[in-house]
Amino acid sequence: MEKARLHVVIEGIVQGVFFRASTREEACSLGLSGWVRNCFDGRVEAVFEGERDKVGQVLKWCQKGPPGAMVRNVEVNWEDATGEFDSFSIKY
Q: Cα separation of 7 and 35, whole Å?
């Protein structure tokens, strides 16, 4: 399978609604690696790497988020996979 890397920045009501923890659960369930973190401006940023179809699935999930989130916009940047991550983590 073709590997892909996706960098997203998610805007809306995405902090204080377990967005990071839910993103980690979703990414791990799909076998993806990377990270997610809160931004100081209220957005959430994440990088995912793995099989392209699985990365596409997590993108669809990010466009709605967990219950309680209200996603207004997702900035999407597809990149070449680097293989630099061993797991998916929450950055603080």
A: 10
